[in-house]
Design a protein that fits this description.
The protein is α/β, with parallel strands linked by helices. The longest helix has 17 residues. It is about 35% helix and about 15% strand. The chain has an 8-stranded parallel beta sheet with strand order 3-4-5-6-7-8-9-10. The site of the ligand CC(=O)NCCS(=O)(=O)O has 7 residues, from loops. Ligand LF4KAAF6 binds next to loops. It catalyses: N-propanoyltaurine + H2O = propanoate + taurine; N-acetyltaurine + H2O = taurine + acetate; N-acetyl-L-methionine + H2O = L-methionine + acetate; N-acetyl-L-valine + H2O = L-valine + acetate. It comes from Megalops atlanticus. This is N-acetyltaurine hydrolase.
């Protein structure tokens, strides 16, 4: 049994799982998303390059990835600090910060934010999607990648002594690339050594979550201690969703607050509304999956913050929970989704 066993590892050290309280399992507090910049339509270049202001907020809501400025969440640390204080006032306890290598993890800032706000912050180890992998990363063996991930959890990340408490979000594309496959295998090997939680960003195809799970399983990963993120933009058919759910991972609906007409990374996708997300949660609960569901907002651009007139990190607590209660999800089931499931997932074996 390791020193981590039975504990949750935050950026301020180990805590007892009972201290976490309500937990958003997939957020970002500081990151850059330049890797996924999506060029604006030719007629939109003016608004895309203009400074963010009131009159272009609706355009930005529809085209969040076509403004370079919007992709720099790392420039909003004062606003994020305020948001975290509001999150605490709304009854929030913990945030899992999913920024991994490739999208500018800043673990020193995470520690400062945790100290200044009292929110427990759990940082993520490992690598984001292939387009962000450096040449050096691509050349690494699975063993080398495993050692780095293990070290980020046991000794500290990015040259600090601040330790990660989860592996992920581990980025995968569709189809899954060779370099991503190595990272997935390394993730499974590191998880076997550490008994730690894992969280996955699947590619934008309904087959992607299952394909990732197969790679993790073949490498010895613990699927029961793994969160599959972004299901709300990935699996739409309820039959396929149940087939995936049977594999035993946590099922994450983490884009609460995101409502846009055209999802630029996959135009086939109709991004659901928050009402539809709640319906999907109610469906999974009715099918017996209340012990597997976790939820979040996945804030990763500036315009999702309340400073820019949007939902911030407290939308689920303030608005979505009351909605869930009117749609057949009981208070006890809400508490499982917000408290018990994240706690079980985040606790080291
Ligand atoms: C930071 C991140 O990966 N967010 C997910 C964006 S996506 O459009 O749902 O893939």
């Amino acid at each position: 049994m390791s020193a981590l066993s039975g504990k949750v590892q935050t950026v301020l050290g180990l805590v007892d799982p009972g201290q976490l309280g309500r937990t958003m399992t997939h957020e970002h507090l500081t990151m850059t998303f330049e890797c996924c910049y999506f060029p604006p339509a030719p007629g939109d270049k003016g608004v895309a390059e203009a400074p963010i202001e009131m009159k272009n907020l609706f355009w930005l809501k529809q085209n969040p990835y076509s403004s370079h400025e919007n992709l720099l969440l790392c420039q909003e640390m004062e606003a994020v600090r305020e948001e975290l204080l509001a999150y605490r006032r709304a009854g929030g306890g913990t945030i899992v910060e999913n920024t991994t290598t490739g999208i500018s993890r800043d673990i020193n800032t995470l520690r400062r934010l945790a100290k200044e706000t009292g929110v427990h912050i759990v940082a993520g180890a490992g690598y984001y999607v292939d387009v962000t992998h450096s040449d050096e990363t691509r050349k690494m063996t699975v063993e080398k990648l495993t050692d780095i991930i293990v070290s980020e959890v046991l000794h500290g990340a990015d040259g600090t002594d601040i330790k990660c408490g989860v592996i992920g979000e581990i980025g995968t594309s569709w189809p899954i690339t060779e370099s991503e496959t190595k990272v997935l295998r390394a993730t499974a090997h590191a998880q076997t050594q550490l008994g730690c939680p894992v969280i996955i960003h699947p590619g934008r195809n309904a087959a992607a979550p299952g394909a990732v799970v197969r790679i993790l399983q073949e490498a010895g990963g613990d699927i029961g201690k793994t969160v599959m993120s972004h299901l709300d933009r990935t699996i739409f058919d309820h039959g396929e969703l149940l087939e995936f759910a049977k594999l035993g991972s946590y099922l994450e609906y983490d884009l609460f607050g995101t409502e846009l007409l055209n999802y630029p990374y996959n135009l086939e996708v109709d991004m659901p509304s928050d009402c539809q997300r709640v319906k999907d949660l109610a469906f999974l609960v009715a099918e017996g999956y209340e012990d597997n569901i976790v939820i979040a907002h996945d804030v990763h651009t500036k315009n999702r913050l309340t400073k820019y007139g949007r939902h911030g990190y407290s939308h689920i607590l303030n608005n979505i929970v009351p909605k869930m209660l009117t749609r057949g999800i009981s208070r006890n089931q809400v508490d499982k989704i917000l408290i018990e499931n994240p706690k079980r997932w985040l606790t080291f074996k």
